[in-house]
Predict the structure of MATE family efflux transporter.
Amino acid sequence: MSEKMTKGVQILRGDPKKAILKLSIPMMVGMFVQTIYNLADGIWVSGLGPNALAAVGLFFPVFTGIIALAAGLGIGASSAIARRIGARDKEGADNVAVHAVILSLLLGVVIPLTMLPTIDSLFRSMGARGEAVELAIDYARVLLIGAFVAVFNNVGNGILRGEGDANRAMLAMVLGSGLNILLDPIFIYTLGFGVVGAAYATLLSMVVTAIFIAYWLFIKGDTYVDVTLEDFSPSWEILKDILRVGLPASLSQLSMSIAMFFLNRVAITAGGENGVAVFTSAWRVTMLGIVPILGMATATTAVTGAAYGERNIEKLETAYLYAIKLALMIELGVVAFIIIFASQVAYLFTYSETAQAIKPGLISALKTLPIFLVLTPFGMMTSAMFQGIGEGEKSLVLTIFRTLIMQVGFAYTFVHYTGLGLRGVWLGIVIGNMVAAITGFTWGRLRIRALKRAFQESA
């Protein structure tokens, strides 16, 4: 089969430093716009009152789980395609892409079939009653019916990232999030749909994004991979290859949500309801700082995957270390900004008279909690590198170690066995993350060293 040399493929096979830079910047932009959308969505819905917010909140963990599965499948496809591009296996890359699309369609059908009949009882099992539950059910039905679109978009985005086409991957993310921001007030208020309008806005924006991705992959024909049934040859090896990275990636995202649940409980223990208000507010600000790292991580998975497929461990190591260095420099600037302007940032969450009570605690949190971002690149780029070389289980172990064991464990210990109070939560997260980052980086370096020896012996 003849090979098409797209610009993305040339980037993946070229200078690893330039590849990290060219692939990470578009993904940072796309993820930043998604973050802005999440904030805007909450602001628009909040205007409908507490029941509407509660309805969206009830469905949020369910939707988070769906997106985690979809995003994980996208990461699995991205890694498998990148490795085959590095190995000059065009036919294999095509077959991976078709497998990934078929998996996305199957998952997209299974989700609504299994969840629609049980969503009512699920919400009520959470203890919710009254109007909030009715609104949540109506809201959930719209998005569950459209689940296949969400899954397809994440997998399609993963295919584009895997072949180095970060610009179109970014465009899909920006298009969906930007359109959603514009449609929210129209469907919620202008058309009078209320909270269900937010679901319609999300679904319509996802459908428009899916049309663009489908056009690029199936019709335009200028992608590296050819996604046609002619290129489909059922393969358990390809299926296992995608899922070996995809399932751990999904579980990694879920583990972060579980860690947040436990950290909320620790914050409540340390400072009551005000404590969790301080924590969630400071965490939202800190999570803005994680966006550059996430963008860099998607690039790292693709570039290290291509280098691994090429059996060029020196290139893999260069990309891995350069991504850490670049992310570290960005995070030092982000952390410095948050600490210096902690009072001004805190004002955004405490401008109302009733919120003044948490302002001192929030300023204190903003001067400590963001420090954990400094060493985060060491752990997250190692996880991304493990995904790139097809060892997703190692990435999962590292994520669970960082979030559930180290961050939650240190925060719990400091709150229950010292007199630090809420400050113990911030210090626990920072120190726990530092230990995990150093451990992860050490593991990554050892794995690369082992790969060098293995490839040299087999040469």
